[in-house]
Design brief:
252 residues, alpha+beta, 8-stranded mixed sheet, globular, Acyl_CoA_acyltransferase, transferase
Length: 252
């Protein structure tokens, strides 16, 4: 697989790393190694974004040892910006499988439709209440709840945590992060009993307006390429793909 490349989009890739924080990072010859107790591939993978001066085979082996010592699988995130640019082929030859082909999509905030569902709450600081609802809707364990809370508290730019209510009950939530003129959208989730009612669309419209009020002129999001309902929703909202990425995971 060969990513499509556009150097202007590397900023969005940097933002996506800032906005989904791990618990710790290790800079290794230009690569960013991220660790978060195994919670999500994005926060527990190698981001080969920058220069690479070492022998790449030795470097991969050292990364494998580092992740193994942390009881984690070795995972690489493959974007159009990888260094060296033949890394994806090398990982393929070393037995790494492609997992979770995903799209990065953007849209301008010049014009945004007004939301019709007004019963939402926006918190600009993470609250235990929001996190409880998020974990309930995602069926996250208490262990992952603690990790998620630490990760969200590590974000260093403006955040908005949104909850959407029906008859006083939180049935959808998500969050946005504003930085460098973009609002990134994350973890949009709706209660399974309330799906296909346009609630996610309403919640995203609120987030986009909040982002615009806080200086954003564009929005970006990431979506798994085989998630047909999400792709349909984001197309309806005016988002379009700018590049793809995937993960390389060592075969067991």
């Amino acid at each position: 697989m060969t990513p499509r490349s556009n150097p202007d989009y590397k900023t969005i890739e940097e933002l996506s790393l800032n906005h989904w924080q791990p618990l710790s990072t290790l800079l290794f010859d230009g690569w960013v190694l991220r660790f978060a107790e195994g919670f999500t591939k994005r926060a527990n993978s190698i981001q080969p974004l920058h220069y690479s001066t070492m022998d790449v085979h030795e470097k991969i082996e050292q990364c494998e040892r580092i992740y193994a010592s942390n009881q984690l699988s070795t995972i690489f995130k493959i974007t159009p910006f990888i260094q060296p640019d033949h890394l994806d082929q090398l990982l393929h030859e070393k037995g790494y499988d492609v997992v979770d082909l995903s799209q990065v999509q953007t849209r301008s905030l010049a014009t945004i439709k007004e939301p019709e569902h007004a019963d939402v709450k926006m918190d600009e600081q993470l609250t235990g209440e929001w996190l409880d609802h998020f974990c309930r809707l995602n069926q996250l364990s208490d262990l992952h709840r603690g990790t998620m809370g630490k990760m969200l508290n590590n974000i260093r730019t403006r955040t908005g945590f949104i909850s959407l209510f029906i008859d006083g009950q939180v049935v959808a939530c998500g969050f946005g992060v504003v930085e460098r003129g973009y609002i990134g959208l994350y973890d949009i989730i709706t209660d399974a009993n309330f799906r296909n009612r346009g609630l996610a669309e309403q919640m995203i419209l609120h987030l986009l307006h909040w982002g615009k009020e806080n200086g954003a002129t564009f929005s970006y999001l990431q979506v798994v390429a085989n998630n047909a309902p999400a792709l349909k929703l984001y197309a309806k909202l005016g988002f379009s793909e700018i590049y793809t990425y995937w993960y390389r995971v060592k075969k067991a």
